[in-house]
Specification:
Layout lengths: L2 H17 L12 E2 L12 H23 L1 H8 E8 L3 E3 H6 L6 E12 L5 E12 L8 E11 L5 E10 L11 E3 L11 H23 L9 E8 L8 H10 L7 E6 L5 E8 L3 E10 L3 E10 L7
Parallel strand pairs: 1-8, 2-7, 4-8, 9-13
Antiparallel strand pairs: 2-3, 4-5, 5-6, 6-7, 10-11, 11-12, 12-13
Helix pairs in contact: 2-3
């Protein structure tokens, strides 16, 4: 599917979500660490409820992968327009449908999460572990992932994009609760003019960062969120000054975005892209009053040049 077709389909899906009625989500409410600013980042109880539903969907996703296998478990939870990185952005459903069932068990745990004010769009970031089914042929693998989620009009949460990194040694521990990001996020946009303004600004922010990296031009720290999370091969989630340094100096994200998508509330968005010889990347953007669109999560992996 062409990138423009993917983008159009996703925008239509989010537009439908904006007018769909909320439905009750099933499943247990995972432990979530919330701050006093959570309500300011959304609309009353909508965001905490949607966040709990997203994490419940992720738990169901993991349970299906454990019981059905990696291929069939993913197919059960992928949106029709979902994207995975193999290593470049690839239509996910077609890719998984063409694979044999892998001979390993995949498990993961979310560490960070955020949901847009409309309660229809969010992401989770955490640790994954793979173990061979025979238990002996090769060692376990470890890494971290970023999954972007979309809430369909029928209330189901589905995977919209998934990217990750490997080569990470197993960490000594993990957060006791899922850390909620985005306490400083803008309130949901109201009215078509403000929505259009934020949509244009999101495209500009995505192109500005990718273009600066591609041309080895300066990347300003003012474009980055204060709680920025960065994933790079061989490393766990990086934050603080080191996260800023990685984005400022890295060139793996220096290719033209093939998809840019904004939540129906105009406060959270993503962009993604990839190019042979450069890299493949998935980014989450957050809108903050007086600062505009800021990079909240950045996952980038190198992609070798095409074989001659």
């Amino acid at each position: 599917m062409r990138p423009s077709s993917i983008l159009l389909s996703l925008l239509l899906a989010l537009a439908a979500n904006a007018v769909a009625q909320d439905e009750d989500a099933s499943g247990a409410d995972p432990d979530v660490a919330r701050t006093d600013d959570d309500e300011a980042a959304g609309t009353g109880d909508a965001v905490p409820d949607a966040l709990a539903a997203l994490l419940a969907a992720e738990a169901a996703f993991g349970a299906d992968v454990a019981s059905r296998g990696v291929r069939d478990g993913f197919l059960r939870h992928l949106a029709d327009e979902a994207i995975v990185f193999r290593p470049l952005p690839t239509p996910a459903r077609a890719w998984f449908a063409a694979q044999a069932e892998p001979d390993f068990l995949l498990q993961w745990t979310p560490w960070f999460a955020e949901v847009a004010g409309a309660g229809d769009f969010g992401y989770s970031l955490g640790q994954w572990t793979s173990n061979p089914l025979d238990g002996e042929s090769r060692p376990a693998g470890h890494g971290h992932y970023l999954t972007v989620w979309i809430r369909l009009p029928d209330g189901q949460w589905k995977v919209l994009a998934d990217h990750g990194i490997g080569g990470v040694a197993q960490p000594a521990g993990e957060p006791a609760t899922v850390v909620v990001q985005g306490a400083d996020r803008s309130a949901p946009a109201q009215g078509s003019w403000l929505m259009n303004t934020r949509w244009v600004a999101l495209q500009e922010a995505s192109l500005r960062l990718a273009g600066s990296q591609a041309q080895e031009q300066p990347v300003s720290a003012s474009w980055l969120a204060t709680d920025l999370l960065v994933l790079r091969p061989g490393r766990g989630p990086v934050s603080g000054h080191e996260a800023t340094r990685l984005v400022v100096t890295d060139r793996h994200g220096g290719s033209v975005p093939v998809t840019t998508l904004m939540a129906a509330s105009g406060d959270l968005g993503i962009s993604l892209g990839g190019e042979e010889g450069v890299g493949a990347w998935l980014r989450v953007w957050r809108h903050v009053d007086d600062r505009g669109w800021l990079l909240a999560v950045d996952v980038a992996t190198p992609v070798p040049p095409a074989a001659p």
